[in-house]
Amino acid sequence: MNELRSKVKALLGSSEIDLFVGYEQGTRLPRPLLAASAEDADKLIFDERCTGNLAVYLTRKDLMGGKKAGIAASYYALRSICRLIDENQLQDGATKIFALTPQGALTSLETIADVKQLLQETPAPAKQVEDAWVQEVEEMPAAERWKFWTGELAKCFKCYACRAACPMCYCTRCIVEVNRPQWLQPWAATLSNMEWQINRVMHMAGRCADCGACGAACPLGLPVHIIAHKMVQMVRQHFGEPADKGATLSTFDPSDKENFIR
Ligand code: SF4
Ligand code: SF4
After folding, report:
1. pTM
2. Is 72 among the domain residues?
3. Into how many domains does the chain fold?
4. Is the distance from the beta carbon of residue 55 to the nearest atom of ligand 1 less than 6 Å?
């Protein structure tokens, strides 16, 4: 912890970075901290409890516009950073990335190659809760499953906190705000709420880090991260590890089975 604090202080002091995205102790759990001074840096913590996906802040133009940034990156944030570099939203080598090795040691990562190397060496966090959710929902007969999801998504009031929490939702103008043509009804109604989530998750195909931040951000506790988790499972099953294959919806491979075309 002290090691990260002193490294961040040095980076801020030498103007190598203007802002460091990290964690501080919250009331119960670690919470995000945007450190811009040595005083801020003294509040930084970074340990196995810091699992949130802070990569979401790296593409926030209101926070980052023109600033040189550093980040304390969890496993999920590392996955998102890879995608953001692949999608030209971050410049490779421009962000000072700190992460924890599987042994819990602090390490700094200079390039996307370093990030991918560490991801390969780090076991993916277990997703037993999400796997159990998917299994439970899949075992429902189709009518019951429809009832389940319409029942859950009927409660959505379109606050878009799920979108705001997601590092891959970086568009300056989201499809839900386009009104010529109007793709989605902007008001909350069950079917348009379902369209919103289906659209959101389809846009994540092959890009989602499976971090669960969308579900954690929902003020109603709607399990929208379970839809993302199922999508990640399907992409992995049909196309391999998403992080290695590009965006699933925009990558064409002549050897694709295309057995969905009937
Ligand atoms: S789990 Fe949710 S928040 Fe995380 S990357 Fe996927 S869609 Fe975005
Ligand atoms: S965070 Fe929850 S309530 Fe808000 S738009 Fe997303 S699913 Fe709906």
Report:
1. 0.93
2. yes
3. 2
4. no
Q: Which of 80, 100, 121 is the C-terminal boundary of a domain?
A: 121
Shared domain check, 89 and 40: yes
CA of 142 to the centre of ligand 1 (A): 25
Q: How far is CA 253 from CA 14, 89, 247, 249, 262, in A?
A: 46, 24, 12, 11, 18
Q: What are phi and psi of 158, to 5 degrees?
A: 55, 50
Confirm or reject: Cβ of 158 under 6 Å from ligand 2. Answer: yes
193 and 208 fall within a common domain:
yes
Distance in Å, CA 54 to ligand 2 centroid: 19
Q: Which residue has the tokens 């940034």?
A: 69
Q: Are 225 and 130 in contact (CB under 8 A)?
A: yes
Kindly state whether residue 258 falls inside one of the protein's structural domains. no
In a domain, 91, yes or no: yes
Which of 121, 139, 161 corresponds to the end of one domain?
A: 121
pLDDT digits (tens, 9 = 90+) for 51-101: 999 999 999 999 998 899 999 999 999 999 999 999 999 999 999 999 999
Nearest listed ligand to the Cα of residue 199:
1
What atom in ligand 2 is closest to the CA of residue 163? 6
Domain limits for position 177? 128-250
